[in-house]
Amino acid sequence: MHNFEFQNGTKIIFGKDTEQKVGQETVPFGKKILLHYGGGSINKSGLYAKVVASLTEQGIEIFELGGVVPNPRVSLVREGISLCKEHNIPFILAVGGGSVIDSAKAIAAGVKYDGDVWDFFTGDAHVGDCLPIGVILTIPAAGSESSAGTVITNEDGLYKRATGHPSMRPAFAILNPELTYSLPAYQTACGITDMIAHILERYFTNEMNVELTDRLCEATLRTIISNAQTVLTDPTNYHARAEIMWSGTIAHNDLLSTGRIGDWASHDIEHEISGIYDIAHGAGLAIIFPAWMKYVYKHDIHRFAQFAHRVWDVEIDLYDIEKTAKEGIKRFEQFLQSIGMPITLTEVEIDETHFKEMAKKATERWELGNFVKLKEEDVLQIFHLAK
Ligand code: NZQ
Ligand code: ZN
Q1: 158: left (phi > 0), else alpha (psi -120 to 50), else beta?
Q2: Which ligand ends up closest to the CA of 286?
Q3: pTM of the full structure
Q4: Which domains does the chain have, with CATH numbers?
Q5: Residue with CA at minimum distance from ligand 1 atom 40
Q6: Nearest residue to 214 (alpha-carbon basis) of 184, 257, 243, 176
Q7: What are the DSSP calls for 5-57, one per residue?
Q8: Using a 6 Å cutoff on CB, does residue 244 contact ligand 1?
Q9: How far, in Å, CA of 38 to CA of 181, rounded?
Q10: In this predicted model, what pLDDT tens digit does every residue of 313-331 receive, in sequence order?
């Protein structure tokens, strides 16, 4: 097991009606906030009105910045930074999904920096300090509600890049599974795929003797898989929505990273796709992750066979362990299809036009991955496997 330090200070407030506590959770951070949200789902669901009421009850002055789009853009982040600086706002409340939270995190970092916020994403500057942020989560997916990272797209060049710092972890995250009832099936499935991918990025490691986290990963994966069909066919099933929502946080709050080095190549490759084609991150992962698996499984067939056996109940064939490993990848693909995800680039109308450009962009800073190191040529081959 690898040495590790684990600290995740995000206070999780989970359950029915918990959004009503937002005023009292926010007020210790100041009497002025930036309320940050997306394209209108919170107005439609009535959440916006409830949040404003709870904040107003505590005498909190609200500055608003809506309009965050999926694959959030740096231009809106810059707007948010100006707003916070101009009005001396000490706290940001993100109400929405990963895109809103990531945009809030970038604003929180940019307010404390004199240069351009994009510097954090190119590596020209490092995040040191951030405004505190709070979250009301409306889609279980990205895990940003308690992660230390943010992913932002720069319209100039269509670069989608990540940065992070422990100070970016939200101070609190309110998780009410009922708020996810209004999610369209496709978004629900994208979220499920993303959380599975967060676990798999950690699961495929070269670290030995990580039995506890292997089994925590497998338990979380099995929980997601066993509740996936229920949330799609019965979207107001509280119990299933609750299992999925809590799994999304556990998948990415770094508990499952303890003692192991994760891979993360599939995420970096996917970011090139959603950066250029603006598809949902989860859909991009459904396409790239199986292709990555097919490209690398021979590196550690036993780990892939373990995945097949413990997560997908594939019987281990002691005479043909490769067959077991491959069957696990096949079952994973079948599961993704069963929840309505695409598993090829063709299904989302992406052809070879930008393969070379994306492979180059993905590897121009460093080789990707840790389980297997990938160069530009490897990434190109993965795109071809994903056709
Ligand atoms: O904008 P609104 O109108 O709110 O609509 C959103 C959006 O269109 C909608 N939605 C959210 N909650 C809803 C709802 N619609 C109906 N009812 C609800 N309750 O869903 C759409 C997608 O929202 P988005 O926030 O983009 O989804 P997600 O949470 O999947 O976030 C994706 C972003 O997170 C990044 C991804 O790259 C992507 O940009 N990631 C962030 C990570 C992190 N910071 O730790 C890690 C992840 O790996 C990921 O890369
Ligand atoms: Zn992800």
Answers
A1: left
A2: 2
A3: 0.98
A4: 11-179 (3.40.50.1970), 183-385 (1.20.1090.10)
A5: 142
A6: 257
A7: -----PEEEESTTGGGGHHHHHGGG-SEEEEEE-SSHHHHTTHHHHHHHHHHH
A8: no
A9: 17
A10: 999 999 999 999 999 999 9
